[in-house]
Design goal:
The structure is a single chain. This protein is of the alpha/beta class and about 700 residues long. It has three domains: about 260 residues, 2-enoyl-CoA Hydratase, Chain A, domain 1, CATH 3.90.226; about 180 residues, Rossmann fold (3-Layer(aba) Sandwich), CATH 3.40.50.720; about 170 residues, N-(1-d-carboxylethyl)-l-norvaline Dehydrogenase, domain 2, CATH 1.10.1040.50. The protein has 30 helices and 19 strands. The strands form four sheets. The protein has an eight-stranded mixed sheet with strand order 12-11-10-13-14-15-16-17, with helices on both faces. A hairpin with a 2-residue loop joins strand 18 and strand 19. Helix 13 packs across helix 14. Bound molecules: 1,4-dihydronicotinamide adenine dinucleotide.
Length: about 700
């Protein structure tokens, strides 16, 4: 049985036991319902304690049930809550581990909540495109006030027990949590009357412009999304409407969100992130190697960020560069980033101090004599990287894994320079490495299952979301991206403006359009990468990027690129349009008005074609892996599910149509590939990859 009922004197203990996270599925709800009835009917029972087995309060509803509709099979959570609130006996939640989502809504319905010191609570529904649907917004707001509710519920944050206590969500923190809850329950039972429930708590009148100010401050962050706005509406309703109406509105908005395409897309992402972790054949029993000490070679932008990722996860780092000056510069950069993390409240002073102390600098490879792994992050120069790998092979212990942070280069070529190709792998971090969630791990021809298992496990320890890619030029992300960048310039040549192109992509939900992105990375850098790349004979680069670089329009760093910059603020530059129009003239292209739909299709559909090729070649194992890469590495809006999922919703036939129109002028690589055609004919990617 997924619930256990037992007695501790006059207190009934109702324990939820549904591994792994005690999710509130139908069986659990049936068990809870029966347990509550038992407690109600037994005159010897004076109070009830709700707790979870394996020191874990329910960490949520069962998300598969939310999708399938089984969450609506009686007894639903709302019915259980009604039973709890009319039981006539005090109920206390003993929160160990994480009480999240429906689990926390259950706890909020109790008369009191006692949490373990390391417990976390929260309502993370927004991450799945939902709002809490069982009174979560209403009770949270009544206990903690609207300002705290807005912050926590729209972000889906998990709150530490101390914070939850400070804002009134829980009543006490106790290490022997269940025992403390039993005592608390007994004390309540001995009182003259039952304590007030959260739903009855009186709310202080909120500051008059609280909601308007919050909406304005988050307009950009929540743009295009449904759930965060509905959460704000629900919290406002808790403050301004009669209680019953607030609860009803919340439920109505929960159902609206549940039916929305955004909820479906975000659940796809949730499942895709988990599926991406599976990189070895089912049943394979390879244990990851322990990683406690690492070397990071190259103390530049990426090396510094990567060193921080390790140090923050409690791993000792030796940061190596060519000279004392370069190392000092790297350590200085790290110091500044820690100061920034402190300022933003991402780390406590103690955490930052401890992490910093784990990083030491070095200029001699002999300093890497005891590392479990080394990550190379030197300049993107194949000859240099080969040299570094030879030296790493000579100076690190034979057990150590050697990884490269290259964003495009051949992992097998680096592996061939070592006597341990089976321990060579790519670990492609994204910039800024201590912030960006994605780690695109790259499998070399010889990479052993243990090496792969180790870097996938490592990613989790670093708090990253990892995808395993095969070895090819650009791996998953950058290989797809080349089409996007090139097409933005072709659109400029034909008549679009930078504002128009970036506007369409930003309205779609990306944080930044392709040209603003170029300005951020530096047009000289973009041009240098392009110069080193051969194009097939039937393709051409637009001359726009080269001219931008030649004219010193390097982007943000020089104050002008596709836009003029004042700090982070961008402004249109008429001279850029003149440069673009001159290119159109030279190429004999008559500029025309280009519509939003065409811009979007031409920028995104070629990505899908390349994604299909990656699947066909086995570079990406699943369409969902590509979605995860694009969401966490390239700013694709998660609520649209990632490019491959989005394309399926759009209809793959439309993608094929765009490509067929582009290929004659763009080159044979732009032709829809066989895999894309097969997926379109069979109704989606799944039919081919399952
Ligand atoms: P960077 O130019 O900021 O840093 C490179 C560092 O490597 C410099 O400090 C340099 O002194 C050091 N170095 C050069 N030769 C060395 C040697 N033989 N031994 C030790 N250190 C040496 O470069 P960045 O941007 O950090 O890039 C590093 C790598 O990360 C490249 O492979 C790049 O493709 C990749 N990458 C870069 C991203 C970015 O956005 N900058 C994103 C993802 C990957």
């Amino acid at each position: 049985m997924p619930t256990h009922y037992r007695r501790d004197g006059d207190v009934a203990l109702l324990e939820i036991d549904n591994p792994p996270v005690n999710a509130l599925d139908l069986q659990v709800r049936v068990g809870l319902d029966a347990g509550l009835r038992c407690a109600a009917d037994d005159p010897a029972v004076k109070a009830v304690v709700l707790c979870g087995a394996r020191a874990c309060f329910p960490a949520g509803a069962d998300i598969n049930e939310v999708a399938s509709g089984a969450a609506f099979h009686s007894p639903i959570l709302l019915e259980l809550q009604a039973r709890m609130e009319t039981l006539g006996k005090p109920i206390v939640a003993a929160i160990e581990g994480a009480a999240l989502g429906g689990g926390f809504e259950l706890a909020l319905t109790c008369h009191a909540r006692i949490a373990a010191p390391e417990a976390r609570v929260g309502l993370p529904e927004v991450k799945l495109g939902l709002i809490p649907g069982s009174g979560g917004t209403q009770r949270f707001t009544r206990l903690a006030g609207p300002a705290a509710a807005l912050e926590a519920i729209t972000s889906g944050a998990q709150l530490a027990a101390t914070r939850a206590l400070a804002i009134g969500l829980i009543d006490a923190i106790a290490s022997d949590t269940v025992r403390a809850a039993v005592q608390w329950a007994r004390r309540l039972a001995g009182g003259a009357s039952l304590p007030a429930l959260a739903r009855e708590a009186k709310l202080a009148v909120p500051e008059p412009d609280l909601f308007a100010a919050f909406r304005a401050a988050h307009a950009r962050a929540f743009r295009g999304q449904l759930a965060p706005w509905r959460i704000v509406d629900a919290i406002e309703a808790a403050c301004t409407r009669p209680a019953l109406e607030g609860f009803q509105l919340e439920r109505q908005w929960y159902l609206e969100c549940r039916e929305s395409p955004q909820r479906k897309a975000l659940m796809h992402v949730f499942h895709a992130e988990r599926a991406a972790r599976r990189v070895l054949p089912a049943g394979s029993q390879v244990a990851p190697l322990p990683i406690e000490r690492v070397g990071v070679v190259g103390a530049g932008t990426m090396g510094a960020g990567i060193a921080m990722c390790f140090a923050n996860a409690g791993i000792d780092v030796t940061l190596l560069d060519v000279s004392r000056e370069a190392v000092a510069l790297g350590l200085e950069r790290i110091g500044a980033l820690y100061d920034e993390s402190l300022e933003r409240g991402k780390l406590s002073g103690e955490q930052a101090e401890a992490a910093r102390a784990r990083i030491r600098g070095a200029v001699e490879y002999s300093a890497l004599g005891d590392v479990d792994m080394a990550v190379e992050a030197v300049f993107e120069d194949p000859a240099l990287k080969c040299q570094v790998f030879e030296r790493l092979d000579r100076s690190t212990p034979p057990r150590a894994i050697l990884a490269s942070n290259t964003s495009t280069l051949d992992i097998d070529r680096l592996a061939a320079r070592t006597r341990r190709p089976q321990q060579v792998v790519g670990t492609h971090f994204f910039s800024p490495a201590h912030v960006m969630k994605l780690m695109e791990n790259v499998r070399g021809r010889a990479s052993s299952p243990q090496t792969l298992a180790t870097v996938m496990a490592l990613a989790r320890r670093l708090g990253k979301i990892a995808v395993l890619a095969g070895n090819c030029d650009g791996f998953i992300g950058n290989r797809m991206l080349q089409y996007y960048g090139a097409e933005a310039e072709r659109l400029l040549e034909e008549g679009a403006t930078p504002e128009q192109i970036d506007g369409v992509i930003e309205a779609f939900g990306f944080a930044m359009g392709p040209l603003a992105m170029r300005d951020l990375a530096g047009n000289d850098v973009g041009w240098a990468i392009r110069r080193n790349r051969a194009l097939p004979a039937d393709e051409r680069w637009s001359p726009i990027l080269e001219r931008m670089a030649a004219q010193g329009r390097l982007g943000r760093k020089s104050g002008r690129g596709f836009y003029l910059y004042e700090g982070r603020k961008r402004r249109s530059d008429p001279q850029v349009l003149a440069l673009i129009c001159a290119v159109s003239r030279e190429l004999g292209i008559e500029r025309r008005e280009i519509g939003e739909a065409e811009i979007l299709a031409r920028l995104l559909h070629p990505l899908i074609n390349e994604g299909a090729k990656l699947l066909a070649e086995g570079i990406a194992a699943r369409a969902g892996d590509i979605d995860v890469v694009y969401i966490h590495g390239y700013g694709f809006p998660a609520y649209k599910g990632g490019p491959m999922y989005w394309a399926e919703q759009e209809g793959l036939a439309k993608v094929i149509d765009t490509l067929e129109r582009l290929a004659p002028s763009h080159g044979a690589r732009w032709q829809p590939c066989a895999y894309l055609r097969a997926a379109a004919a069979r109704g989606g990617w799944e039919c081919l990859t399952r």
